[in-house]
Structure formats: structure tokens, C-alpha cells
Amino acid sequence: MKFASEFRDPVAARALLSAIARKADAIGAARARPVHIMEICGGHTHSIFRYGLDRLIHEGVEFVHGPGCPVCVLPMARVDECVEIAERPGVIFTTFGDAMRVPGHRKSLLQAKSGGADILMVYSPLDALELARRSPGREVVFFGLGFETTTPSTALSIQQAAREGLTNFSVFCNHITVPEPIKALLDDPDMVLDGFIGPGHVSMVIGTHPYDFIARDYGKPIVVAGFEPTDLLQSVLMVLTQIAEGRAAVENQYARVVPEYGNSVSLAAIADVYERRPSFEWRGLGEIDASGLRIRAKYAAFDAEEKFGIGYATGRRSVPEIEGCACGAVMTGKLKPTQCPQFGKGCTPDMPLGALMVSSEGACAAYWQYAGARETAA
């Protein structure tokens, strides 16, 4: 990839759209509904609407937005626990900016900050680590959040803290994994899914083989995709081609970035620092077995749940969603954002009810920014 413009070429895009239309017409002759393709990653959702692919794609293809926004799938109870830690005396709570405005049952981190809690936005866990070095009299907690994309950086920071013997640094671990919720969706009898656009950044870390079960056990094609418009269009065409040929496989459209077996250094750090939780709660999906990571006992000194006696360490309970908020249904692709009765009314970027409206990868934020006004007016 020399220039981004190579992957935004309108001539190439039109050729791909024409090929998709021909393939979709051929498939549609044998069925009475569109082909449902779920883009798992929230970054892909934003690209689809940013470049208008939802309007350009053939009517025989329908994009289904998946649970690939790590901030969005975090249940309200975990936000409440972040606030509880942040409001304790002597704590500096650090977080990525996306999580600041996500509403909990009581308040958001931003509201807690306005109330006096020492909460700082950082760009990396290494920023939090440096803050701990410079603030030996304070407890610095990093909100470890994200899929396999961000998991290695948190693991490497914990390893570094252990090497330095820092006793005032810990991580509130909410790292989660992609394959397990896909399985949960495939096991849901109410979901109609014909294929998947696989996440590019996650796959850069884990490779393509963790998705083998999708094709092997469920007979669904999945294509790992890049984020430019021709990346996504080519990936849709690859999914349709598999369906037309009656086969299911894991294919890698994003081979310029994603290695087959992932990143060995990152995977080694993950294996050293984390182990699987027996289960983890997901917004809209409930408890999913082995879908979350926790810090191993050898690094327990850096586990905020253990240090502060909070969360799964104390047998936590779920918190119900705000009444009228359809985040769960939107998160699992059962509703479009504009089908939520609160979209653009009780829930806006300025006054969000749910995380999907505030996260940079949230489906509701994508609709609001790129498509909401058009669809609401329609």
C-alpha cells in the first residue's frame, strides 16, 4: 500500500460494485431475501457509512452490524465499577478517551471527574505507567479495555511494571476476545447470518486461524478485511463468491497487514500475563464463556480487581440497561440504530443513553455522523 488513494479509486470501486451486483443477482435468484453479511468490527461499520457503501451496494446485500466495539459491549456494571475505583481517595484513574462518556447506572467517568475524581485520559497504558513512576504516593489505575488489538500493550505494561517493582500501578482488566461472541451469535436461532467480514486489526494480532470454526462448524464464509472502501467491497465480493460456489472458508483480503498466524511477540505477552475468565458479561449478549481475560496470579499485584476488592473478585452482579435503550439489540445486529425508539430523541451524542452513541466505533455514532439524518428524514 503506497497511497490510501489506491484503495479509494472510484473506477476500481465501480468495477467491484458491478461484480457484487452480478453475484448478488445470481444468488438472489435462489432465495427470497438479501444476503446478510455481518461486519464484526466497529471500524468497518464506520468505513461503510463514511464512504456510503451502504447506499452503493446492491440491494441483494444487507450489512448487519456486529459487536465489534469493545467500549460498546461493556456492561453498565463495569462502568459503575470504574467509577467506584476512581472515586476512592488517593487514586488516579486513567482511561482511553472513548470510555470517558460511556454512561454507567449512576454516572459516567466524565461525570465522576466533574465531581472531583482524579480521572485522566491517556493514549497508551505506557502513559499510565509513566504517571505511576512520577506519582509514588498515589495509586494509578489503568482501565484495560479492548479486544486482542489493545491487549498486548496492556500486557507489556504489566510486565514492565513487574520488572521495575512498581507497587502503585494496576490494571482494571476488561480485555475481551472476538471469536467467542461470534459463536454466541451463530448459536442464536433468531440471527440470520450468511457470512462475515472479519476484523482487520484484531486479526493482525491473532491471525486467521481462530476463525476456522466459523467455516468448519457452521458452514459460513468469513473474509478478514481492511478498512478502505475497495478493501470492504472486495471482501463482500469474496464472501458472495464463496456462497455462490457453495463453500465456506476463512480468507484473508487484508494480507498486506494480517499474517496467517498473527504476531508471535504479542501472543507471547498475552499468554504470559492473562488467562481466560470462566465467563464475562457482554452488553446485549449476556454472559459468554471464556470470552474475557483476567490477570494471572503471578501478576496479581497489578490486578485492580484484587487490589481494590471489586468486580468479579467479589462475585459482582449485573445491572439492568436503561429502560427504552436498545443497545443490546443494535449491538447484536437485530435492530438498526434508527430503529431504536431513543435514537436522536432521548439518545444523542450530547446526551447519550448508551455506549453505541459515544464510542468512535459505535454503530449509533456511525449512523448519527454519516447516515442518521438521512434515514431519520426518510
From TrEMBL:
Signal peptide: none annotated. InterPro entries: Hyd_form_HypD, HypD_1, HypD_2_sf. Gene3D superfamilies: 6.10.20.100, HypD, alpha/beta domain 1. The keyword Iron applies. It comes from the Bacteria. Keywords: Iron, Metal-binding. Belongs to the HypD family. NCBIfam families: hypD (TIGR00075). This is Hydrogenase maturation factor. It comes from Rhodobacter calidifons.
